[in-house]
């Protein structure tokens, strides 16, 4: 299985969910083994941040890369799209401190990548295979990576709210049998009206609206078009987790589980994994048939 990048450069314009700033986004092809690199082109030449767990230094309601005072916030939805399409190398140029929120899901980023086109490169794709269980806990919250010959995500959320049906607060998706684009990519971020004052006080949520998020009052979903999936809330948490985990810079061969998890715990889990050299190994596959079937489904089925 070979590394992948974009065939062409593509651009989009949007606003940041938390900053409210207008931002221009440009996705460009990148050479083999260069990884995923974000560049703040509004700050001049040389301001670049290559994704890695150690650069995630702000996890308030999003995953934010921070290096030498330079920030690129809310990268998880784009990273999730890159993971879902198997993109290894790409340059992401932005003109502000936050990624555009688009419609609150990964679907617009999937569309952009597909419009740019995807090409294979002359180098083997590298995977991180989890060799032993790694767990991070915080009170009753926890996240875990366990060995698994594929890629599987199981998440449970817990909200005491009429719009959150108990049966729709847990989901398990095995990507050997599941299409990321059909079952995950369209799930939108969500928030509550009572949180707006807190977010605005902390300079967050400045660009939020019912055009880019599911909004709930005390009783119901306020968006006139309702939900895209019956369990859209937990599926969005899956979308976030896939994006957060791809900040590792390589696709995981593992099972990920989480209970009431979020960006901070997802990042702590990656750091815990890398801190134990016996917990993981790098692998590549000369013969694609030897790769776990999840990656055939995850990367090829919807291109």
UniProtKB/TrEMBL annotation:
Question: What is its cofactor?
Answer: Zn(2+)
The main enzyme category here is hydrolase
What keywords were assigned to this record? Hydrolase, Lipid A biosynthesis, Lipid biosynthesis, Lipid metabolism, Metal-binding, Zinc
Q: Which domain of life is it from?
A: Bacteria
Annotated Zn(2+) binding sites: 77, 236, 240
What reaction does this enzyme carry out catalytically? Answer: a UDP-3-O-[(3R)-3-hydroxyacyl]-N-acetyl-alpha-D-glucosamine + H2O = a UDP-3-O-[(3R)-3-hydroxyacyl]-alpha-D-glucosamine + acetate
GO molecular function (one): UDP-3-O-acyl-N-acetylglucosamine deacetylase activity
Stored InterPro entries: Ribosomal_Su5_D2-typ_SF, UDP-acyl_GlcNac_deAcase, UDP-acyl_GlcNac_deAcase_C, UDP-acyl_N-AcGlcN_deAcase_N
Enzyme Commission code(s) on record? 3.5.1.108
Active-site feature positions: 263 (proton donor)
Tell me the pathway.
Glycolipid biosynthesis; lipid IV(A) biosynthesis; lipid IV(A) from (3R)-3-hydroxytetradecanoyl-[acyl-carrier-protein] and UDP-N-acetyl-alpha-D-glucosamine: step 2/6
Task: Write down the Pfam families for this protein, in alphabetical order.
Answer: LpxC (PF03331)
Keyword Ribosomal protein found: no
Q: What does this protein do?
A: Catalyzes the hydrolysis of UDP-3-O-myristoyl-N-acetylglucosamine to form UDP-3-O-myristoylglucosamine and acetate, the committed step in lipid A biosynthesis.
Alphabetical list of PANTHER family matching this protein: UDP-3-O-ACYL-N-ACETYLGLUCOSAMINE DEACETYLASE 1, MITOCHONDRIAL-RELATED (PTHR33694:SF1)
| Protein family (similarity comment) | Belongs to the LpxC family.
Q: What is this protein called?
A: UDP-3-O-acyl-N-acetylglucosamine deacetylase
Lineage summary: Bacteria, Pseudomonadati, Pseudomonadota, Betaproteobacteria, Neisseriales
């Amino acid at each position: 299985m070979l590394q992948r990048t974009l065939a062409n450069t593509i651009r989009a314009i949007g606003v940041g969910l938390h900053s409210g700033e207008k931002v221009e986004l440009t996705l460009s092809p990148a050479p083999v083994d260069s990884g995923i690199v974000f560049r703040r082109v509004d700050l001049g030449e040389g301001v670049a941040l290559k994704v890695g767990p150690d650069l995630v230094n702000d996890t308030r309601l999003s995953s934010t890369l921070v290096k030498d005072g330079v920030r690129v916030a809310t990268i998880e939805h784009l990273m999730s799209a890159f993971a879902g399409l198997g993109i290894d190398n790409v340059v992401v140029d932005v003109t502000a401190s936050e990624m555009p929120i688009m419609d609150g899901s990964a679907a617009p980023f999937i569309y952009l990548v597909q419009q740019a086109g995807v090409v294979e490169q002359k180098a083997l794709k590298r995977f991180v295979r989890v060799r032993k269980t790694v767990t991070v806990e915080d009170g009753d919250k926890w996240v875990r990576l366990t060995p698994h010959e594929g890629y599987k995500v199981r998440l449970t959320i817990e909200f005491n709210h009429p719009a959150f049906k108990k049966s729709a607060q847990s989901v398990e998706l095995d990507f050997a049998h599941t299409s990321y684009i059909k079952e995950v990519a369209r799930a939108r971020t969500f928030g509550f009206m009572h949180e707006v004052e807190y977010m605005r006080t902390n300079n967050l949520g400045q660009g939020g609206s019912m055009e880019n998020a599911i909004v709930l009052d005390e009783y119901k979903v306020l968006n006139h078009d309702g939900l895209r999936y019956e369990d859209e809330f937990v599926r969005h948490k899956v979308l976030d987790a896939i994006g957060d985990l791809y900040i590792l810079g390589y696709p995981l061969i593992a099972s990920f589980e989480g209970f009431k998890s979020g960006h901070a715990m997802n990042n702590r889990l990656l750091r815990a994994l890398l801190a134990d050299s016996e917990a993981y190994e790098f692998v590549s596959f000369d013969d694609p048939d030897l790769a776990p079937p999840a990656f055939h489904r995850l990367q090829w089925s919807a291109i």
